[in-house]
Amino acid sequence: MRIAIVGGGLGGLAAALLLRRAGLDATVYEQAPVLREVGAGVVVAPNMVRPLALLGLADGLARFAVRLEAAWEFRRWQDGRVLFVQPMGEACERMYGAPCYVAHRADLLALLQEALPPQQLRLDHRCIGCRQSGGEVEITFSSRDGTRHEVVADVVVGADGIHSVVASALPGPAAAPSPRFSGLCAFRCLIDAERAPAHARRPVQTLWLGPGRHVVHYPISGGRLVNLVAIVPAGDWRTESWTAEGDVAELAAEFEGWDARLRGLVGAAGRTMRWALYDRDPLPQWTDGRVTLLGDAAHAMLPFFGQGAAQALEDAQVLAACFAGATRESAPQALLRYEAVRRPRASQVQLMSRGRELRNHLPDGPEQLRRDAELAQGDPLRANGWLYGHDPEAALRAPA
After folding, report:
1. What domains lie within the chain, and their CATH numbers?
2. Which among 192, 279, 281, 304 is least surrounded, fewest beta carbons within 10 Å?
3. What mean pLDDT do residues 103-130 have?
């Protein structure tokens, strides 16, 4: 079978590798001339580690990822008082069979690329169209010099992100879903660990909660960098791009009056990116004939559960399992089975990721006090068992 994967991000490369493990070669077409992952930090939760382990790549995480000792350390905005700490480490491995890491997306992408045979990756291929005809799919690509060329495939997997061209080629309501603006934007910084205060260098994911905004930070790249993401009201900012430049002074102004330790970390940032936060409603359909979607193209979600990349790898694992033993003739049925297994779960995570900021951004008062008391009594590691303990292939074996 000729399988074309449009998009060379984490989900696209993982799909190619897992399909290869199932005995099928897929070619990845990526628009960038050099494979690189924009963005910064990503949580590599246990349900993301396990697909990497299937590929024999989980041990490679030790080269660059930071194994979390605490997955959530919630702090109060005004004085840095610790509201709750969730230990991870051995407890996470005992419960879910894998640790929880944080990493730079670029390092993860390099790990996957190193494992993929070079002939299965085609760079400088920007998808500009996708059309089915006569039991085949014709994809049109454009290169940087303006050259256009066609590729014919038996199966196309659109792993081309939140602005998916492949999704726009699907029929009816599945095509190009309208973005839903959250009213928020995110400032993203990578800070040299040497410039960061000691509290930010610990192997801990820290969340500072305050009125109308919150901050998340943790070390990545083997502890050489600190990833910081600040979620604040968007104001007039509407740019949905991970590469749009922000203003460090504007970021710092958002946290005037907050604890000096957090302001010190923000002050160590020499550069920030800024993007408006949008998501999409769950799609009613991912698959049409020989074309399907994967990752953000299928289920773009807000970042508040840290599950975007993990869900893409779960997609890839199920897709590969559905294609094990499939033929060219049975490929459309394999794609429908993939969607039937994955769409309900991914849609659930997508919807659960909405509204989390309302709880994080409560103004000081009775509701905030109740939230803090609930945090102190909580056990999110166990409560998130439905996320971290999920077995994609067991879901595939369940009755349809």
Report:
1. 3-67+103-178+282-355 (3.50.50.60)
2. 192
3. 96
